[in-house]
Specification:
single chain, 85 residues, 3-stranded mixed beta sheet, 2 helices, 28% strand, globular
């Protein structure tokens, strides 16, 4: 069976930044890996969207700050809708 791709977006400029990261961890843990392919997307406190590799680090560290690569999401694109820059 083909896995369903699920983007989990977390972090952000809110005062609830850390709570959002903890919630994302909980959600990802609850998704069955044989059914879902999780694509983590972190938003830093400055509003920078981080790509999956850097977002995974943010999940592990508990803070989505810094980042060396930004991410853009292109709505309606059938292929390549996540663009890193």
């Amino acid at each position: 069976m083909k896995k369903i791709k699920v983007a989990v977006v977390f972090g952000g400029r809110s005062g609830e930044h850390e709570v959002s990261i903890m919630s994302a961890r909980s959600i990802i843990k609850g998704l069955k890996p044989d059914r879902y392919e999780v694509i983590p997307i972190a938003i830093t406190r400055d509003g920078l969207w981080l790509p999956p590799a850097e977002a995974q680090s943010a999940l592990e560290s508990g803070v989505a700050d810094g980042g060396t690569t930004s991410l853009a999401i292109c709505p309606g694109a059938a292929v390549g809708s996540l663009v890193q820059g």
